[in-house]
Design goal:
It comes from Chryseobacterium endophyticum. By secondary structure, this protein is of the alpha/beta class. Helix content is 48%, strand content 14%. The strands form two sheets. Strands 4-5-6-7-8 form a five-stranded mixed β-sheet, with helices on one face. A three-stranded parallel β-sheet has the order 2-1-3.
Length: 252
């Protein structure tokens, strides 16, 4: 068994896949350095240095074999943070190289491909819910701030949605679990990685007075328009699971 250790980045993962073929590894596993715990003392360790050129060569080959849509699905598997995601992606790429004229991502008889399909559906569902349930709060400096805590790392998948929808105001979305975010300043829309975790208590103290009034008005509106006799909590939870309530002003 050979263990390839990479830096957790998508380019690093693709570089690892390239080197699996380059060095003709057969019995191999790809593991990020931050999750590596050597259990097999006889395993050979191969430390991968991320190389953009190698990653791009893998992407180019994949685009020929499974198209941009197929690459997008493998990216979603990567963003799912599933413990098996490296092996699933490696398996799919191996199959695409072996069967370049087939759409291997539709071969659901294969266990790895079937799991990739299920993961993509889950990630898509989480992405949709994040676009639906994110709530922005206006800060004293005029920036609109939103916090999220998704099950999957969907921030890269929702960036375009919010950039296209809110082009006329400054905003930022911060992932509480992964400690990074997106910042839009009316010109650029980039990821940011704070050195320390954002102190949400300090942010709440920086709310714009106008924001506090809007929150109060919305909570009152929600309460007064709620028809108690027609309340169906079971159906409500099906459409808006409890874990998303923390984003909704009307639930505070």
């Amino acid at each position: 068994m050979t263990t390839l250790l990479y830096d957790s980045s998508f380019d690093g993962l693709l570089t690892s896949v390239f080197e699996v073929f380059e060095y003709k590894y057969k019995d191999v596993e790809i593991v990020s350095r931050e999750r590596f715990h050597q259990e097999n003392i006889f395993a050979e360790i191969h430390k991968v240095i991320t190389q953009t050129e190698k990653a791009e060569r893998v992407l180019h080959k994949l685009e020929q074999n499974i198209g941009k849509q197929g690459i997008n699905e493998l990216l979603k598997v990567y963003l799912s943070e599933d413990p098996e995601m490296e092996q699933l992606i490696l398996s799919a790429i191996r199959q695409s190289v072996k069967h370049p004229d087939e759409n291997i991502l539709q071969n659901y008889a294969d266990d790895a491909i079937l799991k990739i399909s299920k993961i993509c559906k889950s990630v898509n569902r989480e992405r949709h819910r994040m676009t639906a349930f994110v709530r922005f709060e206006k800060m004293q400096d005029g920036v609109f701030f939103a916090k999220i805590d998704p099950d999957f790392n969907v921030l890269p998948l929702i960036r375009k949605h919010f950039k296209d929808r809110y082009q006329d105001q400054k905003w930022m979305i911060y992932d509480l679990r992964r400690h990074y975010g997106i910042l839009y300043d009316l010109e650029t829309c980039d990821f940011f990685y704070p050195d320390e975790k954002i102190d949400l208590h300090q942010y709440h103290q920086k709310f714009h007075d106008e924001e506090k009034r809007y929150q109060t008005l919305w909570q009152r509106y929600f309460t007064r328009t709620n028809i108690v006799e027609r309340k169906n909590l079971k159906l409500h939870i099906q459409h808006v699971p409890r874990r998303y309530w923390k984003y909704l002003t009307e639930k505070w």
